[in-house]
Amino acid sequence: MVLRFYRNLILIGKPGRGFRHTTKHNETGRRISVKNPKGPIYRDEPHLAYLDEVEWQEWMDDFRS
Questions:
Q1: 4 exposed, middle or buried (CB, 10 Å; 0-12, 13-18, 19+)?
Q2: pTM for the full model?
């Protein structure tokens, strides 16, 4: 649960959009949310940054090991 907080890219000022999109399921006519194959788009928002990107990357390296 700690990683859920620290993996949030808003901490370094890079919010993302487009993690998921919908595709139409023609049999039922409903739209189903699926992972976006193109990947998300990240914006640079330095006023939201709480940590340096270098410092954040060091933390992530510590969590992975």
A1: exposed
A2: 0.67
Biggest alpha carbon distance in the chain? 49
Domain ranges of the chain: 2-64
Whole-angstrom CA distances from 6 to 10, 23, 28, 33 are: 9, 31, 39, 26
Residue 2 has pLDDT above 90, yes or no: no
Structure confidence by residue, pLDDT tens digits, 29-63: 999 999 999 999 999 999 999 999 999 899 888 88
Which residue reads 């859920």 in tokens? 4
Q: How far is CA 47 from CA 1, 34, 54, in A?
A: 26, 31, 17
